[in-house]
Amino acid sequence: MKRNLSILLVFLLFGSIFIVAKPKVTIGPGTGSVNFRVPYHQNYNRTLFSDTVYIMTGWYFVDSTYKLTIQPGTVIRGDSASGGH
After folding, report:
1. Residue 33: enclosing H or E segment and its boundaries?
2. Which pLDDT tens digit goes with each residue over 26-83?
3. Are 22 and 49 in contact, with CB atoms under 8 Å apart?
4. Separation between Cα atoms, residue 29 and residue 38, nearest integer Å
5. Which of 23, 28, 31, 35 lies closest to 80 in space, CA to CA?
6. Does residue 82 contact residue 34 with C-beta atoms inside 8 Å?
7. For residues 8 and 29, what is the distance between their CA atoms, to the nearest angstrom?
């Protein structure tokens, strides 16, 4: 029992070293105050990668001649202060 607990503690200690936080990128910031932001219009092809956490602020539009590619497993969070719930 003590040996199993010791192995578990060693695993948790060394396993936590390899957990790395994903970088965060803010997208679609728009302009204006917190209560009203000018919508952001993406006018280029863009890929959101699964190794990054994206914070979306305000309204975000992709123009019809461009595309937004989102890799499986990508995390996109909304900024509640600007209405991007």
Report:
1. none
2. 887 666 666 667 788 889 999 999 999 998 887 889 999 999 999 999 998 887 665 5
3. no
4. 9
5. 35
6. yes
7. 44
83 burial level (CB within 10 Å; 0-12, 13-18, 19+) = middle
Cβ pair 72, 50 in contact under 8 A: yes
Buried b (16+ CB within 10 A) or exposed e, 19-51: eeeeeeeebbbbeeeeeebeebeeeeeeebeee
Task: Give the number of other Cβ atoms within 10 Å of residue 54's Cβ.
Answer: 19
DSSP symbols for 38-79: PPEEE-S-EEE-TTSEEEE-S-EEE-TTS-EEE-TT-EEEE-
